[in-house]
Write a structure and sequence with these properties.
This protein has about 300 residues and is an all-beta fold. The protein has helices at about 190-195, 240, and strands at about 1-10, 20-25, 30-35, 40-45, 50-55, 65, 70-75, 80-85, 85, 100-105, 115-120, 130, 140, 145-150, 155-160, 165-170, 180, 190, 200-205, 210, 215-225, 230-235, 245-250, 255-260, 260-265, 270-280, 295, 300.
């Protein structure tokens, strides 16, 4: 028996992580083994000498690897197979001050969703904006609604001013449903995250630890990072606290409650506790796989 190693990289020679590799017999009919590429883009199989077929099943969005591929294992010998695939990477806006929003839509069967119309309706008062292709010169108004649609591959891209909101987004087929969104201060954004942002990470201001005496109260500002790269802070946007449930690891030491867009911590007894948070049920749209939400615990020390 010999070890057969598959090393998968993308078009930029970066490891392709999480790709399922299945090994079939010489007739490409019987499944013999399967594995998933690790953080280095590698996966190993133990096989006897002979010819086999490998099939690749990418899980990253819009990743492709030519499949199936025939390979031969020799024993003794070195059996390392270098495979180059392709992974979609968001394009960036060439114009300062603008965010290029792009991405793919699929239907319930995982097939490209062609001709999906997205209507964008600005909700702000008329604003003067520099023409994106000019360093100076004419100014225009971005106030009229615009519609964009996906192409044959389910792909769409459009450009919006950075750090602008709010925009009312409506998806064709769901005219009775719309959502207020904003553009991040970034050169790019995923279209799904743009329309359906998820809670990504939570930090605090001050970051802690909080040194408190019994009966003291202190307010901390939650800083909620969304998957669209925008940050909601309690002082300017109460959604930061309305989207989350806050809890103390030990309510006998410290308790929490929402107050004026911030989190008020009350010291109850001597000891230590940590303040964490979880997204409220039903606030964010369902996503597969689920969005990872990273919380930096806020430490509270009561003396």
């Amino acid at each position: 028996m010999a070890t057969a190693t598959f090393d998968l990289v993308d078009q930029d020679s970066l490891p392709m992580v999480g790709i399922t590799v299945r090994v079939y017999d010489s007739a490409n009919a019987t499944l013999l083994d399967e594995g998933v590429t690790d953080v280095a883009g590698s996966v190993d199989f133990t096989l006897s000498s002979g010819r086999y077929y490998a099939r690749f099943y990418p899980t990253p969005p819009q990743a492709t690897v030519d499949s199936p591929r025939r390979f031969t294992v020799i024993d003794p010998g070195v059996n390392i197979f270098d495979i180059v695939g392709w992974v979609f990477k968001h394009p960036t806006s060439p114009y300062p001050g603008y965010c290029l929003i792009s991405g793919y839509f699929v239907d319930a069967h995982g097939e490209p969703l062609r001709g999906q119309i997205i209507r964008l309706i600005p909700q702000w008062d008329p604003s003067s904006l520099a023409h994106p292709a000019a360093e100076s010169g004419p100014l225009g108004y971005f106030t009229k609604p615009q519609s964009v649609s996906t192409d044959e591959d389910g792909y769409v891209e459009f450009r919006l001013p950075r750090n602008m909101g709010c925009i009312l987004a409506t998806i064709a087929g769901y005219e009775d449903w719309s959502v207020e969104v904003g553009t991040p201060d970034s050169s790019w954004c995923d279209v799904v995250d743009f329309i359906f942002p998820q809670a990504s990470a939570l930090t605090w201001d001050p970051a802690g630890p909080l040194a408190m005496a019994v009966d003291d109260e202190e307010e901390v500002e939650p800083l909620l990072l969304l998957s669209n790269q925008m940050v909601l802070d309690g002082s300017t946007d109460k959604l930061a606290v309305e989207m989350l449930d806050f809890e103390s690891s030990d309510p006998l030491v410290a308790t929490t409650r929402v107050h004026a867009g911030n989190v008020r911590v009350t010291a109850v007894a001597v000891g230590t506790a940590t303040i964490t948070a979880t997204p409220k049920p039903g606030v964010f749209t369902a996503r597969l796989p689920e969005q990872t939400f990273t919380v930096t615990p806020l430490s509270v020390v009561v003396t």
